[in-house]
């Protein structure tokens, strides 16, 4: 497992300059408009999408065919993609948090001495990891099924679907007179780790089922 994760990290280092440049560009676009919170979310999602690049490298090198003749289980290979996705999400929130705080403090949108702003940013960082991991894990089964190039065209639909479902649920609740009060938001926040865990388990099972039937 460790070797599989290191493989993806070493491969992705070749694209780090382009990724860091893109994140710096978004720094100047996002900070003046949305502050550190918006930048953290942006970094998390952009970094999570690097998992697609790892699949592209694997396809170009025909890695999966080679891996099947090595003492590597298909379960470990699939699981490693979810682990590396989590690593990318964590890198995104740390990178976004550090630069977001610095940039927002310079323009006066973040006050270092404000405890409430630190608490809010921490909550945003946790939400950024959860959202980016949720969306990234949705793409992984598509990558195993269709490959990196075809999956890229389906990513937008995959991202829009949960957003539309959440919006539909929100307006449905409003039509029944159910408002998202602080207590409801707190409840959703408390159960979100369990939902994310169940979602990840489902995406892993789907991905493993697809990869298990693949022939090389």
Describe the structure.
The protein is mainly α and about 220 residues long. It has one domain (about 1-160, about 180-215). The protein is about 85% helix and about 0% strand. The chain is built from seven helices and no strands. It has helices at about 1-10, 15-50, 50-60, 65, 75-105, 115-175, 180-215. Helix 2 (about 15-50) packs across helix 5 (about 75-105). The radius of gyration is 19 Å and the shape is globular.
Arithmetic mean of pLDDT: 84
**What is the number of E strands?**
0
What is the C-alpha radius of gyration, as a whole number of Å?
Answer: 19 Å
Tally of distinct domains: 1
Helical residue percent band: over 70%
Secondary-structure element order, as H and E?
Answer: HHHHHHH
Strand content: under 5%
Counting DSSP H or I runs of 4 or more residues, the number of helices is 7
Keywords: Membrane, Transmembrane, Transmembrane helix
Pfam families: ABC2_membrane_5
Protein name: ABC-2 transporter permease
InterPro entries: ABC2_memb-like (IPR025699)
Summarize the structure.
This protein is mainly alpha-helical and 216 residues long. It is built from seven helices and no strands. Helix 2 crosses helix 5.
Give me the secondary-structure topology.
Elements: H1 2-12, H2 16-48, H3 50-60, H4 63-67, H5 74-106, H6 115-175, H7 182-213
Throw out a few tags for this protein.
mainly alpha, 216 residues
